[in-house]
Design a protein that fits this description.
The chain is 28% helix and 25% strand. The protein is α/β, with parallel strands linked by helices and 223 residues long. The protein has two domains: 145 residues, P-loop containing nucleotide triphosphate hydrolases (Rossmann fold, 3-Layer(aba) Sandwich), CATH 3.40.50; 69 residues. Helix 2 packs across helix 3. The chain binds adenosine-5'-triphosphate. Keywords: ATP-binding, Nucleotide-binding.
């Protein structure tokens, strides 16, 4: 049985935003897993200096949508355009337990075209902004879950991407770090980045520029 989600979903441009450069444009995204349609014609347009939140019930397709935007999954229908560089923070930390955080900065930073010093400086700066002071040589497997997740966030932002795609990035953060995380998001927005955050924390939604609600029975535009 095809338990598809009713009408097309999505958020597109509102008034007053058209003078900014579009960084992410996803149009008409349809995705099925076998016969189950998870995304039914979803639109999402995010411009520079904007933060979009993707919300919805468990299983609504939030991570699927983000992976499609990141180019990690192909949609069955629709198209995605990304203008510029992209950083992706997966829900489950894609980090290596047998390396230190600094080694991650070198590995991911050089992959982004930074030299070792720049990668280290930028990694430590981003970590500091999340209330994480790096000291000593600690293997990632010996970090707490929350700190491992901070590393995950830092790595996604290390190359100073134009578009940041963050999938429930603050899991395991204590309250102060959670507040710091949103401060980082606002500073990325100030710097002209486009940011998309998958979130269950609805108390932040009045501070974001766009909300894409994938809850099946909603399936409608919010902004
Ligand atoms: N590779 C896959 N094969 C089959 N079904 C999948 C696959 N990946 C996800 N699904 C299903 O698609 C639906 C959407 O999954 P997705 O992870 O995108 O939801 P979500 O909104 O991010 O959920 P949550 O809030 O629980 O993280 C779920 O029912 C999930 O079980």
């Amino acid at each position: 049985m095809d338990d598809s989600v009713g009408s097309p979903q999505g958020v597109v441009d509102g008034a007053g935003s058209v003078d900014r450069r579009v960084v992410l444009e996803a149009r008409g995204i349809v995705k099925r897993y076998k016969r189950r349609r998870v995304l039914n014609g979803v639109d999402l347009v995010v411009r520079e200096g904007e933060v979009a939140a993707i919300v919805g019930s468990n299983g609504a397709g939030k991570s699927t949508m983000l992976k499609i935007c990141a180019g990690l999954l192909s949609p069955d229908k629709g198209r995605v355009m990304v203008a510029g560089s992209l950083g992706y923070c997966p829900q489950n930390a894609g980090v290596m337990g047998f390396l230190t955080p600094e080694e991650h900065f070198s590995l991911f930073g050089t992959g982004r075209g930074l030299n070792f010093e720049e990668a280290d400086r930028r990694g430590r700066k981003l970590a500091g902004e999340l209330d994480w002071e790096i000291s000593g040589k600690v293997l990632v497997k010996d970090l707490s879950g929350g700190v491992r997740q901070k590393l995950n966030v830092v790595l996604s932002a290390l190359g100073d991407p134009d578009l940041l795609l963050l999938d429930e990035p603050y899991q395991g953060f204590d309250h102060g770090s959670y507040v710091d995380f949103w401060r980082s998001v606002w500073s990325w927005r100030e710097a002209g980045k486009a940011v998309v955050v998958v979130t269950h924390m609805l108390n932040q939604l009045d501070q974001v520029d766009r909300v894409l609600d994938l809850t099946p029975e909603k399936g409608r535009r919010h902004q």
